[in-house]
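Hi F.,

I've been meaning to write this up properly since the lab meeting, where we talked about keeping a consistent format for the predictions we share between groups. The idea is simple: the sequence comes first, exactly as it goes in, then the structure tokens exactly as they come out, then a line or two of notes. No screenshots and no reformatting. I'm using this chain as the first example so we have something concrete to point to.
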Amino acid sequence: MAQFDPKLGTPVAGAGPAGERRLFVHVGSCSGCSAFQLDPAKTDTPGGASVTVVYSGKECAPPEHLANLPSGWRSACDPQGEVQAALNLYFAPRWYEVDKEGRLTWIGKDGDDLPQGVKVEG
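Output, unedited:
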């Protein structure tokens, strides 16, 4: 399935606020179990990196444990699955990194593949 990934350098719509480094994680459907595999309280991101958590599907209210995101994190909804299709989401959570111009610079290869400097407890 990786052969369908977008090319590095591709613009990513809705990738979050401008900054030196932006991380983007797609968790799939809010009603699905994949959203529960991401725990911001146990995820350490490098200083200055913002994180946008994207949900797809008709239910765009985040699960309770993702309702109050830490500073530097935000959520976005993808009800039509456009971001999911553009980024070739075939497992969740899947991490992406975009530069300050909103271009894709890194794609996670599996659910355990994290951007440089990101650490998950437990």
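Notes:
The chain has a mean pLDDT of 77.
The CA atoms of residues 36 and 62 lie 10 Å apart.

If this format works for you, I'll send the rest the same way.

G.
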